[in-house]
Structures are given as C-alpha cells and as structure tokens.
Amino acid sequence: MLPTLDELATAVLVLDAHARITFVNAAAEHLLNRSRNQLAGQPVTAMLGTAPGLTQALDAAARSGWFYTTTDTLLSHPDGDPWHADLTVSPRPNPPGGFLVELKAVDRQRLTTEAEQRQRLQHAVQEMARAIAHEIKNPLGGIKGAAQLLALELANTPHAEYAEVIVREADRLHTLLTRLTTTHQHPHLHPTDLHQPLEQARRLIAAEYPELTITRDYDVSIPPLLLDSERFVQLFLNLLKNAAQATDGRGTITLKTRVARQVTLGKKRWRLAARIDIADNGPGIPETLRDHLFYPLVSNRPGGSGLGLAIAHEIATEHGGAIHFTSNARGTTFTVLLPIPDPQWERDR
C-alpha cells in the first residue's frame, strides 16, 4: 500500500503507535520540505507542532477507532513558519496502534478574502438578475397573450404550430424567471435529520436516471440540524441533477456525510459541522467556469438555466452554511458544510 501513496496529491504521513513517522509520501516531502529519510523516526509533533487540533485528532482517533477530521488547523512547519491545514487522522489496523495522517494546506487569508469578494459579487449579480427578470415578466405576458390570440386565428392552418411554439417558449421562460425571482425565501427551520432530504432527493434522481449508480456512505450519528427540509431537498436535488447530467446519466455518484471539526463558516468558528459530499466521476468542470460557477445564469450545459447551483449556494448560505467544490478530469465533488451548534452531542460522541 505504501508505494501507492506516492501517487496521491494529498500529503500523507504514516505513524507508529507512538506517533513517530515511519513513512511519508512524495506530496508530504514537498509540503514539509524534508526528505523521507529525514522525516523517518521523527515524532509527528516535532514536524507539525503541538497544536491542540493535532493532538485532539490523534487522541480521538485512538479512542474511537475511527477517523477524525479537523479543518483550518494551525500547525507549525519544520522551517518555523506557522501554517493552516485540513487534516484527517485514521487509525491503522496493521500494525495496530498506528495512524495515517492526511494533510492539505489552507491559505486562510486568501480563502477568506476570496469568499467575501465572491459573496458580494454573487449577491450583486443575483439582485441584478432578479430586477431584470421582473422587467421581462410584464412584456412576456403580453407576448404570450398575443400568441394565444394568433393561435386561435391560425387554427386548422399549417402556421398554427408556430404560434403554439411561441406560447410554449413563453411558458418556459416565465417558469425560469419565476425560479429566479423567488429563490430568496425565509427558511422554515425545524430539527431535521439531514439524511431525510438527502434521501428524498436521491430517490427522485434515481427514478429520473435509472442507469445512474448512486453509492452512500453516511455517518448516521450526526444530530438533527435546524433546517428547512423542503429547501434542502431542492439543494440536494440541484447538486445531484448537476452530477447526473455531468455523467450523461450513466456514471457513478457517491454521497458521503461526515462530521468536520474546527470549521469557519462566514466569519464564525464552529467546533463541529456536518459535511455532505456529492461526488461524480464526470469529466470535471472547465477551468473557465470555476470562478463563476455559483453565479446565476452560468451553465456549461446546452439549454441549462444556470440557476441550480446559484439556488443551492443561496440555500446553504441562508442556513449559516457554505458550499464549495473540487474538480479535475476524474470528476467533481461538491461539499456542503452546516454548523452543528449542540455541544452535548460532542461530549456524547
């Protein structure tokens, strides 16, 4: 298994039962600026520091026998500079007592600045789109009415179908504009198992795309969250439909839920957050779209409205959460993060 770790872009450290490094992959060598031989035998705390997030992750993984994830954790670098990383610690069954540590560096200041700029721009674009949609709706009603009268005049003639096309397209455009102007609603919050709307959306997509393979990996210990269940059915449905269309309805989608720790959502730090990953094995998102993907009317699909991801982003944001994605030629993963405000759950876990 160890040689194959060198193929990963994520930095991986293999530790023994005493948290000493026994192996690192090539990505970890690059990240820590140390060779494999230099790192072998070193205590992990000598390389990454004694940050509470790291020691907590090691202790929790050893105690529970399960992986432990923490995000945006402050660590020390062997060269002396502090840095932030998302890390996951997993216990190793062979040899017993060891750990597998995955590290992904986080540019905290850049991410915060970019997220704030993106949110301001998205809000401006959404408000502009809503204003334009309201202006279009009125003349659109007149166009449809005139087309209906024209259809009556042309009944039983070869040209009748042209008037019917106008009516149908006017209805389609009206539906699109209605979706655009009614996305912002005050959520009706109730304690909800997030797997309920996720499963409802999954069943709808499975029925619409019978050739699609959907696998599930749920952490059912996640407590109920204050959600608008109907809104989250829409959020998950939009993300699942996007994934299904990316694979032409014949690929594989993986649904995974986990608990993330030490997560910053907006400008607030949460000790716990629910993480929902929706991954597909499609061709990935073009680079030219990635910076604008959550804006209204942005779509890579012919005939796409470009509203699904914008609506999903708005629903996550209005619940105090966040949504982001990673994408490459092997597929795309959308991640939804939602705060878990119940400290009692962490003590019981």
Automatic annotation (TrEMBL):
Enzyme class name: transferase
Domain named Histidine kinase: residues: 131-342
Pfam families to which the protein is assigned, alphabetical: HATPase_c, HisKA, PAS
Record field: catalytic activity: ATP + protein L-histidine = ADP + protein N-phospho-L-histidine
Keyword list, A-Z: ATP-binding, Hydrolase, Kinase, Nitrogen fixation, Nucleotide-binding, Phosphoprotein, Transferase, Two-component regulatory system
Molecular function terms, GO-annotated: ATP binding; hydrolase activity; phosphorelay sensor kinase activity
Top-level taxon of origin: Bacteria
InterPro entries, A to Z: HATPase_C_sf, HATPase_dom, His_kinase_dom, HisK_dim/P_dom, HisK_dim/P_sf, PAS, PAS-like_dom_sf, PAS_fold
Protein name as annotated: Sensory histidine kinase/phosphatase NtrB
